[in-house]
Amino acid sequence: xxxxxxxxxxxxxxxxxxxxxxxxxxxxxxxxxxxxxxxxxxxxxxxxxxxxxxxxxxxxxxxxxxxxxxxxxxxxxxxxxxxxxxxxxxxxxxxxxxxxxxxxxxxxxxxxxxxxxxxxxxxxxxxxxxxxxxxxxxxxxxxxxxxxxxxxxxxxxxxxxxxxxxxxxxxxxxxxxxxxxxxxxxxxxxxxxxxxxxxxxxxxxxxxxxxxxxxxxxxxxxxxxxxxxxxxxxxxxxxxxxxxxxxxxxxxxxxxxxxxxxxxxxxxxxxxxxxxxxxxxxxxxxxxxxxxxxxxxxxxxxxxxxxxxxxxxxxxxxxxxxxxxxxxxxxxxxxxxxxxxxxxxxxxxxxxxxxx
Length: 356
Prior knowledge:
Nucleotidyltransferase, domain 5; 10 helices; PilM; Pilus assembly protein PilM; ATPase_NBD; FtsA/MreB
């Protein structure tokens, strides 16, 4: 298995596969060390090909990934992919700092047995040292990640079927946080001590992570997303599902669409985000956030950030993971700007190329 946390300096594609599309990002750095967006492309997937993170139509998805890579024009074949958080058990533990690598592996396996509800023979297990423990001087915090082996093999097989070499299998939420961390650092005081709520609005599910100083305070998935907007369009205008999705993507809808369909949907989505924040406040000592970041394919819906700011009382902004990057000549700038919020996880995967 490509390690869940391995860090590869080789050229690397980040490919994120969601229920509605496959997205590819390739990053470089210039001589001064600044980020360069070399490529970003998206390939739609048919409903039902991916369900709850599981690949239901393997051959069809593999062909879509092949088309994605061909469309990108990249010659790179090394790839980082990710599993949904629901397929991975993550646990932070504390271990003595003076353990050798071999001793740490033994300790991790022993600890993992307590948290993983199936045999270690059936899982892909990895760990990384996060850093010195704040609560236990002389010890280190270690992050364990484990997934059923067949889930990892599905992603590896998909890459190989598309002619790619899987070097890294990550976790979607980790990759999204990595990409978002650049944006947090651009906040006042470099985002130190800021409580940031990151919402990724997908097709079927919206995932929420609340972070402070690179620590995850709270995570939650909610069953609402952009696919519900498509269904509202179908009901309002009598289009087929395929027609509605195409017209939504191309902004080719009747004149009353914004007032009759989009505005009520956006207000409902803002209410769901507000409700998710209330769950966070009632489950933790926190009662406010400093910034709400909204990513995902539906993040750029007209009026969404205004509705969220008005409904929650906290500043909301759309995530552009490529903000501040140089843009390579292979990138279609207008298309990228429109689709940027959907590339957050793929961008985080591509960033793995440059981690120390």
